[in-house]
# Entry
Amino acid sequence: MTPRGRRLLGMIRKESLQILRDPSSISIAFVMPVVLLLLFGYGVSLDARSIPLGIVIEQPDTTTQSLAGAFERSEFFAPRRYGSIQQAQQALAERRIDGVLWLRNDFSRRALRGDTAPIGVFVNGVDSNQANITRGYIQGTWLAWLQHVAGARGRPLTLPVALEQRIWFNPAVSSRLFLVPGLIAIIMTMIGSLLTAMVVAREWERGTMEALLVTPLHMAEMLFGKLVPYFLLGMGGMLLSVAMALLLFDVPLRSPLWLLAGSSALFMLLSLAIGLLISIVTRNQFLAGQVALVVSFLPSFLLSGFLFDIHSMPQWVQTLTYLVPARYFVAMLQTLFLAGPVWPVLLANGAAMLLMLVVLTVAVVRKSRKRLD
# Structure
């Protein structure tokens, strides 16, 4: 083995022993992904089920009971009957229900006559997303009931527009299939940026950097030797997360595994470069951790499209998201898992990450000097 190879191998061994002696690094790489995936896979859902809905029927009869039954049989609602609209509105104000369906006393007469039947709908708009979902489910249940009634009477339901919809890539419209792939990007960001932000700062704080600087190691060898164990640690966390996504949450993987591994390796290198640059500039573990949290983790969580739709954000925020590396990786993950190898999406986002990696690598090289100042 050449002297350079021995130096590099020694540096990798040193950093690997440092990781093994630090339980927090192992916890972040392997325990944290399990906790986050269980939390978001089972505990966090953007789907609306069993929405508490108040139903007020002023004049009960066969028609109104049929409509109320349609809501009671729906998996989306947990209806509660109220004797008056005042009671239902009070329950809505107290947040005991999320909406009210009000069937007035002339509902059946006007519905049977073919007129526009009066239905009052009140929705709690404090949570605008939940309000829109509730309103859409009420309209869908109402339309399904009209179709059922028209079929029972032997005549087709006449509507000005007939909607034929097909949902691609996620037919069940399950938020779990949307959240779990994106969460892999958040996990790899934490492993790459937060852990790597400490590697150089730790040497300065402990006073061991001077000892490293007097060794025959070149600065590139030192940094490369420090990054290799964290790269392997991050890829191990990625494999664990993918295994849980496939086996525990039944998220489909419609792309070759080598393509997922290559995309993940590129993003891992980018995250390591961000953390390394932070570590070189700050030279302080506490400050490096805070900077990595603000610069890397929070933007990845909020501005990557993992949790919030980027196209719904203000234009200036959308422009800001182009500086967030996780934006590109989340798009690639959701495509790889749910849609398959859509090459225009993969190549465009991969090229953006590669460009950012080159820029950050140049910055790391310029900031890395084998001297004490």
Remarks:
- The chain has a mean pLDDT of 85.
- The chain has two domains: 10-44+174-367, 51-152.
